[in-house]
# Entry
Amino acid sequence: MLSKKNDTCIFLLEDTTPAFANTLRRIMISEVPTLAVEKIDFNDNTSALFDETVAHRIGGIPLSFDPSKFNLHSECKCNGKGCPSCEVVFFIEKSGPGTVYSGDMKSSNRAVKPISGDFPIVKLLKGQSLKLEAFAHLGTGKSHAKWQASNASYMYYPELEVKKGAKNLEKVVKACPNGAVALKSRKLVLLDLFKADECKRIVDDVSDGDVTIKEDPTRFVFRVESVSGLDPKYIITQAAEILLGKAKEFKTELKNI
Ligand SMILES: [Zn+2]
# Structure
């Protein structure tokens, strides 16, 4: 783990291949289940927005929840009818003038709520009102972006390669963005991985080809930003679990041939 700040994790994945890294990335984006509003019953909507638009906006609000306490709707013991193990109901009842915010969503489950109460849903003028019941279920980004767990991306690990007898090393340090490259005991080192891209051309030009920045296709710097109510660490480990499950399933199926 290189860093973890709020909803973003940066980590190093080593001793692997681009295919494996990309598989992990795709699972982190589209196969880790999250909770989002899927169905809404409108009792009253005299706002300026159509029911569909309001529903779309509510669907996009990320919800914080404990993933160990919920089943996929289709795999629940209630056979998809809806129960506390697979469904959370939110109630909104508000009259204008004023703005309806995500904070106005009253949850049937105390442990589940929007990650912030400040998402605006719709503005109501005097005499306008909104009353609805919204049903949230688990789902994956594969079927709709509102269930996307995270933004995940990676880059190959950058490495400095210095030819023997290379000159102009100090020039390289000076030409690169501040603090990106330094000389330590006469050795050139890359201090800031995320400035490697920027440094690449500069290094080439300044050193007349004596210094280059190469990419290591067996090491990856991953950046995972949660866009759901899930912790990025959970998304990473859960993606690994899902991948393991797929591999096991594949192995079992192979035996049946
Ligand atoms: Zn259920």
Q: What stands out?
A: DSSP finds five helices and 14 strands in the chain.
